[in-house]
Amino acid sequence: MKKKILFICPYFPPHGSGGAERTSLLHAEILIKNGYEVSIITPSYGDKYETNNSFEIIRFDIGKKIKLGEQISSRIFYNPIIQNKLKKKILESFNSNDLKCIHVQHQFLLRGASLAAEKLDVPLISHIRDTGLFCSLGGCCLIYEKPDKIPYLKNPIQHHIWCYFRNWIKFQEINNLFNISYGFIKSFIPLTVFLNNRSHLKNSKKIIFASKNLKKIYKQTLEKKYYAILEYVYAVAKKKVNIKNKRNYIIDEIKKKNNSIILYTGKLSKGKGFEVLLKAFEIVSSKMRKTKLVVCGNGNKNNIYKNKNIIFLGFISQSELTYIYKTCDLVVIPSIWPEPLGWSTIDAAISKKPVVASKIGGIPEAVINKQTGFLVARNDCKAMAKAIIYILKNKNLSKTLGENANKFIYKKFGSESILKKLKIIYDNL
Q1: Contact 95, 120 (CB under 8 A)
Q2: Residue 163 falls within a domain, yes or no?
Q3: Residue 161 in contact with residue 137, Cβ under 8 Å?
Q4: Tens-digit pLDDT profile for the chain (429 aa)?
Q5: How many domains does the chain have?
Q6: Burial tier of 241 (Cβ tally within 10 Å: 0-12, 13-18, 19+)
Q7: What is the spatial distance between Cα 302 and Cα 318, in angstroms, rounded to a whole number?
Q8: How many angstroms separate the CA atoms of 401 and 332, rounded?
Q9: How far is CA 70 from the centre of its chain?
């Protein structure tokens, strides 16, 4: 009997609204297609689930139910009871002879997965997809500082204090002395969790990052003895996209009136650069009146969408979102934090759409400036607006950029390329 690769996921389709869940699913699919056996352990968030005949999905109860597209507070995963439930579920479901490795897909469940791997004496692989293990405050410092200017984590408590008073207060816009003091005391809860997770991270046989640049950012926080176990593996650009995409009639109405559509997908957050995008779109809208900004993602739209040319659709299913990608004219990614990669870069390329994006994080690994899209400096709304207008006014250029992006993304992010990286990791444990 073949030994299984066990994926541990805080969310797994149909639950979860981010790229991590989709990447985990696609990685599992290409592994199974090529002779590996994969099982999934993930929390239960409701009564109805999509089934998958390709691999086993084991769910454990954490006492939370959510609607599709929602996520629970990350603080829920701080609870050691949740981590012990995960450990118990792994030990109940498998023994050491069953598993090739335990591959934890996010730090939210790292502690429970690490304890189970230690108990079963099987290799632990940790997958890092964001900055949650770079900084105890989630990496807000990376929004305001370049990584090489941040005092790195060989003294994490000093870093935590520095980051809180230098960046976190500004990030949260706290303007009351009591709130600042109370918030600082309360911030030691995530610091404790962070230190615990970092200790479990160092138990890993391999540490995998979502992009080359994310690996580079973290590398400065680790001792040299860990460098040999660091890898990066991209998400998969799947060739066979479902052609029966669900139509969106709001989008259809916009196109009937010959409007251009700029698409933004993701959280409406500071790190994602949404405020920068709004400023850029004000410039675009003043010069190109028949242009609409379509926003798909989670967040509060109150007091933001004063421009009648901004259409907020909220959370959109993957099937409907694929239709919107195919219908739009351009995709924009305005991140100001070091985006690990960004699924939008892949989805845009699959649909042969050009991208205007910030030159930060892993984005330049998926976008070639002036060949598959345009890269601009982060926080530069004028440069972003200029690039958007230039592409929208040059239809032939837009088509060429989109076609180039499509060829590039399948070459670099295609199943064959990603499988090769995964095989090297799993076969050399």
Answers
A1: yes
A2: yes
A3: no
A4: 689 999 999 998 877 767 788 899 999 999 999 999 999 999 998 765 555 667 889 999 998 888 777 788 888 999 999 999 999 999 999 999 999 999 999 999 999 999 999 999 999 999 999 999 988 988 888 888 877 778 766 688 888 998 898 888 887 777 778 888 888 898 999 999 999 999 999 999 999 999 999 999 999 888 899 999 999 999 999 875 554 567 777 888 888 888 899 999 988 888 899 999 999 999 999 999 899 999 987 766 654 566 788 998 888 877 888 889 999 999 999 999 888 888 899 999 999 999 999 999 999 999 999 999 999 999 999 999 999 999 999 999 999 999 999 999 999 999 999 999 999 999 988
A5: 2
A6: middle
A7: 25
A8: 14
A9: 15
CB 257 within 8 A of CB 224: no
| Residue (of 113, 139, 109) closest to 11 by Cα position | 109
Q: Whole-angstrom Cα distance, residue 250 to residue 256?
A: 10
Domain that holds residue 8: 4-176+186-236+414-427
